[in-house]
Design goal:
Elements: H1 3-32, H2 37-43, H3 50-56, H4 58-65, H5 67-85, H6 94-120, H7 128-159, H8 165-210
Subcellular location: Cell membrane
Protein name: Na+/melibiose symporter-like transporter
Membrane topology: Multi-pass membrane protein
C-alpha cells in the first residue's frame, strides 16, 4: 500500500469519525439534554481550537517530528477524545465534556494538515492537483460515511429499545462507538506508515554505509 493511498484512507477515516462524532453529540445535547441550538453551538466552540492551532502548532510539530509521527499522534488523541465521551450520562456537566471537545480539536490540528502532506508528498509536481482532488474526494466520502454510520447505529439501537430516556442514552453510546472504531483503524494505518517509513530509513542508511567508495567506520 503506497503512502498516498494510506494518506487517503487515513483522511477518510479521520474525517468520518470527526464529523460523525460532532453529529451524534449535537443530537445528544439537543434531543436528550434539551439544549438550544445556540447553547449547543457555544458548547462545541471548543472543538474549533484547531483553527488557532493549525497555523501555530502544526508546522512546528511537523518540522520537529515529521508528518507521519504527527498523524499518528493525532489519531491517538482522537481515539482518547472520543473514548472519554463514551460514558456520557443523562445529566453530565459541560466540564465533564470539555476535555473531549478540546482534545478532539487538538487531534484535528495534528492529523488533518499532515495528512494532506502525506497525500501529496510522493507525487510529481504536475500531478499535485490530481492528488489534491483525490484527497478532497476521500475526505468528503469519509464525512458522509461517518455521519451515515452513526445515524444507522443510533437508529437501529433506538428501534430496539423501549423509547425511555435510558434506552435513548444507550443508543447514543452505541453510536459513539463508531467514531472510536474509525480512528482506531486509522491509528493502525498510521502505525503501519511509521513502521514502513522507519524500515526504509534504516535500509537507506545501511545502503549508504555499504555503497561502493564509501569508507566504513
Amino acid at each position: 500500500m503506497s503512502a498516498m493511498v494510506r494518506a487517503h484512507l487515513g483522511a477518510m477515516l479521520f474525517l468520518g469519525a470527526f464529523f460523525g462524532f460532532q453529529f451524534i453529540v449535537t443530537l445528544y445535547l439537543q434531543e436528550l439534554r434539551g439544549w438550544s441550538s445556540l447553547q449547543t453551538a457555544i458548547a462545541l466552540i471548543a472543538m474549533g481550537c484547531d483553527a488557532v492551532l493549525v497555523p501555530l502548532l502544526t508546522p512546528r510539530l511537523v518540522n520537529r517530528y515529521g508528518h507521519t509521527r504527527v498523524i499518528f499522534g493525532g489519531f491517538l488523541l482522537a481515539a482518547v477524545a472520543y473514548g472519554l465521551f463514551l460514558p456520557v450520562g443523562m445529566d453530565g456537566s459541560y466540564a465533564a465534556m470539555f476535555p473531549t471537545l478540546i482534545v478532539s480539536g487538538v487531534a484535528f490540528a495534528c492529523a488533518y494538515g499532515p495528512l494532506t502532506i502525506a497525500a501529496t508528498n510522493s507525487v510529481a509536481e504536475e500531478e499535485q492537483g490530481v492528488a489534491g482532488g483525490l484527497l478532497y474526494t476521500f475526505t468528503q466520502f469519509g464525512s458522509a460515511i461517518g455521519i451515515s454510520a452513526v445515524t444507522a447505529v443510533y437508529g437501529f439501537a433506538v428501534a430496539g429499545g423501549d423509547g425511555s430516556p435510558a434506552a435513548v442514552l444507550d443508543a447514543y453510546r452505541s453510536a459513539l462507538v463508531v467514531p472510536v472504531v474509525m480512528v482506531l483503524a486509522g491509528t493502525g494505518i498510521a502505525a503501519f506508515s511509521l513502521l514502513t517509513g522507519g524500515r526504509r530509513a534504516g535500509d537507506a542508511e545501511r545502503g549508504s554505509a555499504t555503497a561502493p567508495g564509501t569508507p566504513s567506520a
